[in-house]
């Protein structure tokens, strides 16, 4: 299994719509303003956090979060804010939120995706956790974001939030699509845990 390079990712994005919308270079400025980069890099692709939805876990001292019986009412819609630096959500100290990617993925049978953090966020105490997107999976990734600091932390909308690494191996016997995985064809909105 090997990691795909820029020209391989570009080919799959342009010919097979593996990433839509696709940016064929790393963008770090928009409208004369510095942004957290997104787009194609040497061996990966930096996706963006959509400005459409960010849900923050509440600070309820009584109660619990059960992944087998997820209750959406434990989440609060984050307010989208904006200043001269851009649009952002404010994540409270030690807070956790769910967001959604702006880009839609459509993975071939021989490609699986793993996400890693961006150094700019990691150095600010932000941890982005995304589970692997298996071969044959399609949809918009739900993004899980933690603020590991005791400070409020900005999460910029419509800017780069995490880097995807694309691994190619031999075509699998049964893809995520074949087994009708429960998160197949995710809409551009936060998708809660399903059992």
Describe the structure.
By secondary structure, the chain is mainly beta. It has a single domain, classed as Distorted Sandwich (Deoxyuridine 5'-Triphosphate Nucleotidohydrolase, Chain A), CATH 2.70.40.10. The chain is 8% helix and 45% strand. The chain is built from two helices and 14 strands. The strands form two sheets. Strands 1, 2, 3, 4, 5, 6, 9, 10, 11, 12 and 14 form an eleven-stranded antiparallel β-sheet that branches. Strands 7-8-13 form a three-stranded antiparallel β-sheet, with no helix packed on it. A hairpin with a 2-residue loop joins strand 3 and strand 4. The longest helix is centred in the first third of the chain and has 11 residues.
The SSE order reads EHEEEEEEEEEHEEEE
How many independent structural domains?
1
User: CATH topology, which one?
Assistant: Deoxyuridine 5'-Triphosphate Nucleotidohydrolase, Chain A
* CATH H-level homologous superfamily name: Deoxyuridine triphosphatase (dUTPase)
In percent, how much strand structure appears in the residues? over 45%
From the N-terminal CA to the C-terminal CA, the straight-line distance is 30 Å
Q: What Rg, in angstroms, do the CA atoms define?
A: 17 Å
Number of helices: 2
Describe the main β-sheet briefly.
11 strands, antiparallel
Kindly state the number of beta strands. 14
Q: What is the mean pLDDT?
A: 95
Query: Globular, elongated, flat, extended or rod-shaped: what is the shape?
Result: globular
């Amino acid at each position: 299994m090997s990691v795909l390079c820029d020209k391989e990712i570009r080919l799959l994005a342009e010919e097979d719509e593996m990433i839509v919308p696709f940016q064929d270079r790393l963008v770090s400025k928009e409208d004369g303003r510095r942004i957290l980069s997104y787009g194609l890099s040497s061996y990966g692709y930096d996706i963006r956090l959509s400005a459409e939805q960010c849900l923050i876990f509440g600070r309820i001292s009584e109660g619990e979060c059960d992944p087998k019986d997820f209750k959406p009412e434990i989440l609060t819609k984050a307010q989208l804010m904006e200043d001269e630096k851009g649009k952002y959500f404010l994540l409270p100290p030690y807070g956790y939120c769910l967001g959604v990617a702006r880009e839609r993925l459509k993975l071939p049978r021989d490609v699986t995706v793993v996400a890693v953090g961006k150094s700019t966020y990691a150095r600010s105490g932000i941890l982005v956790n995304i589970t692997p997107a298996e071969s044959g999976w399609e949809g918009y990734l739900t993004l899980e974001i933690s603020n590991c600091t005791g400070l409020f932390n900005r999460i910029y909308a419509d800017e780069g939030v995490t880097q995807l690494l694309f691994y190619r191996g031999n075509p699998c016997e049964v893809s995520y699509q074949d087994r009708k995985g429960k998160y197949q064809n995710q809409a551009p909105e936060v998708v809660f845990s399903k059992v």
